[in-house]
Hydrolase (Streptomyces nojiriensis), 278 residues
Amino acid sequence: MTGPDIGSLRVNGATLHYEVRGRGPLLLLVPGGTGGAASFDGIADDLAAEYTVATYDPRGMSRSTLDDPDAEQHVAEHADDAARILDLLSPGAPARVFGTSSGAIVALHLLTARAERLVRVVAHEPPVVEVLPDAPDHRLLVARVQETLRTEGLMPAMAVFAAGLRKDGDTAGPGAEVGLPSQAAARAERTMADLPYFVGRIVPGFMSYVPDIGRLETLADRLTLACGQDSRGELPYRPAAFLAERLGTELLHFPGGHTGLTTHPAGFGELLRKAFRA
């Protein structure tokens, strides 16, 4: 199978790397964490049988460079990046968008800001912790992570972050399944290179984001909130479950945990296809 078509897009303060596969209606996949476009390698080719599948590295990650590497990161700007990719690749027709983790936060904001551009959004475990009743506890977690990063370094900060996300009594962080596919293992070096930016810029900028729930209520028929079936009890599960209940919509469960996209690609991709056909 031939590889994707690769392009770059100049946006405000950054240059985005993006990849396109297939033909048909546009499906934009928004990565979370430090995944980048490569995090969708396990599902993108199969989805390209039905859709024009676009993936990209978010600004500051991997091959998408920032003009100012020290710039603060904001959800609205990342969502505008996604909108510019939609406008480039599907200027005349609404698109479908899937986002996971921090990418799901981007997808939620994109829906509230540019609803006319979207047929459906599937948001998998968006950690919008500000919607939760115990939001102050999670603000303290983010503050502890930033202080640990400043005083002790990256890996101790990651340990604090992982401990705050896991379920009570669990010794492994969300999605810490073993036996990653070889493609995922090969991405480890790139992931490590992006971790300082993710922890120092994305985590504080995104976990303080407050979604417009009133606006989402008016768009609930275009939004599918989703979680990993193994994520129950973990922090990233809770906001999606809270929003689904608030909006009166079904909570869709994907295989695996927070990183089910990587650990269970076949089942994940098949359920995603079904979600967009619904």
About this structure: Residues 5-277 form a domain with the Rossmann fold fold (CATH 3.40.50.1820).
